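Morning. Coffee machine broken again, so started the prediction first thing and wrote up yesterday's gels while waiting. Chain of 257 residues, entered below exactly as on the submission form.
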Amino acid sequence: MRVLILGGTTEASDLTRLLADDPRFETTLSLAGRTAKPKAQPVQTRVGGFGGADGLATWLQREKIDAVVDATHPYADQISSNAVAACTRLAVPLASILRPAWQPRPDDNWLSVASAEAAADALGPEPRRVFLSMGRQELGAFATRPHHHYIARTIDPPDDVALPPNIQFLFSRGPFDITAETELLERETIDVLVSKNSGGAATYAKIDATRALGIPVVMIARPHKPSGYAVQNAEAVVAWLEQQRVHRAPSCSARGV
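Came back before lunch.
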């Protein structure tokens, strides 16, 4: 059975490890290419986009893919939309790993906003020391608020975008632990954290640390993310794939685009 995993997350890495030595599945992992040096994976890996829903549908048909797993980041809404469109067109089974969002506790101080631009606005007129833990794609939104001091944590340097003048970078990849996160927030005398609601355990320690230190969080809400059959983890995907093998329709090579 030929399987495509749309990856880039911890769940995708977990799934590749489960499928790598399983002779029932011939697995390809697709990465968007936003990280310069992604971790090596134990299955065949491709990097880069497909060219929208049409390009993905063409690739699925050419490669005779029998099932697709969307294990992309909760904020990767465009590729998920393309996957739903392409798989619906070809009648290729699609499962989506839906990572639960973080939920505020009573002792958290969160302000939920709709975008990075709204997060920049929410920082207010008084200069603050801001920890940006949200990836590099939206850092340009904070260039319009140059009166703050920013500490931005990313895996790679940002793309060629306008940045606020007073910004410091920390290049690091999770997971992170609460002790290190607390020390970081204290050492940098952080006044406020800006974060995406990524969910999962790998970067949740920063939320624990803000709670312990009484630091407010500006939380960028998730976009609407189209999905296929909903599962919560890699193990559930394997069970779903086993069901697809039993009830498998003809290979998508026999289906028209």
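Residues 34 and 48 are 8 Å apart (CA to CA). Going to sketch it on the whiteboard this afternoon.
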